[in-house]
Fold:
Amino acid sequence: MLITEMVARNSRLYGTEIALVERAPARWGRKEITWSQFDDQANRIANWLIKKGVKKGDTVVHLMMNCLEWLPAYFGILRTGALAVPLNFRFDGRMLKRCAQVVNAKVFIFSEEFIERVDAIKDDLQSVESFVFLGPEQMRPAYAQSYEALLASAEGASPGISLDSADDAGLYFTSGTTGAPKAILLTHGNLESACHAENRHHQQTHEDNFLCIPPLYHTGAKMHWFGNLLVGAKAVILKGVEPRWILEAISEEKVTIVWLLVPWATDILFAIQNGDVNLADYQLSQWRLMHIGAQPVPPSLVMEWKQVFPNHQYDTNYGLTECTGPGCVHLGVENIHKVGAIGVPGFGYEIMIVDPMAKRIPEGEIGELAIRGPGVMKEYFNNPEATGEVLKEGWLLTGDMARRDEDGFIWLVDRKKDVIITGGENIYPVEIEDFLQAHPDIQDVAVIGMASLRLGEIATAVVQVKPGRELTEQALNSFCEELPRYKRPRKIIFGPVPRNPTGKIEKPKLRKMYEA
Structure:
């Protein structure tokens, strides 16, 4: 059953029950919708888009902060047969424009937080025929139609578009190591497979309630929620990550499952230790599962968590957008004795460790992790060269170096690519290096990831200043303010940048020099 049909089925079975809750603690706001309202809104979005000429194979950009409207809009796009293109809300205007142009977007849906960025690029988006604005009417740009108005004017009946598991469903952007965005093409079958994998791994029932904190443009947050979607279970979208807000939401909404990033789990433990929150103030007995993904998980963190929450199940999730998010490898709640490993093949998946020629290597040896299964992407959109580099006879080469132990558990060793994962977000060093190289006082620069208890890794810039020039950390931090905040180096080291005879930066040497 396709995910679009799952919503319709949930509407029939559980129409008056709450499907989604939005909590915005900073604004003291709370909203909710039932499964019937969810289904109705998705149909209205679909019918309006179809009336505007959107058809199978078209693309619709979806740019929103987490909110109650996010998922109905997403499902509405899918029900037209068009491809949903959720964009990272951290992208600047230049990147938003590039992504919209790459997919030849026909409609661009955006919320109030992005007015300035969309204003700046709208005239360059020649393929976009309609802009749709979600936000207060007094803020709506003249070139955009009102999201609320189109909901009111459109029909709530099913649009009746025939869909198949092989049909294209979504495009999810990732930046390559050169900074050029690649769009990952997922099918309806890929999305459906994520529902079954997540539900098989974490055994959601209709009585469960999932707390969604990470951004929904990520496959991670959405695909973990898919386990609840499959059984018509409730979910809460929390707009904020303070420990108190998280615990309040779990307590007041009777949440049973929470997916966290390492920084948030760390913050909760620190808040408990510091007395900033008192667990006795919250009703947490129903909270059965805490799981983590998107970045390496320190075993010490999990052990400390289990001391504070001894009754919690725990799971580590490994996934890639190219595999429809989390679940292609997971630890398994029964395998906490193996914390530190990323786990075993997920439901329906196979794995192997391969050499540079993509040939299987013996158990225990280090090689590249390759994955095959129902969530593996169709392709990099309109990029056969990049697709051919990672898809080999149905196997996806992940770019992660790993080994498999005698019990069949996978342990990550290093990343083949130099991507830095900080707080669950991917940062590509070359983008920062190229930016810093433009500084007139810098001779050479290398950006590496260094371990951080809270964020997993932090971007660290090793800067070699030109002879006779002076450069301070304060001046360099000011220079970096033009970068998006999450891409700015969190640590700056002044020193030589070693390169090998072919001119490549010797990053392993740098890490050895500075991580001690």
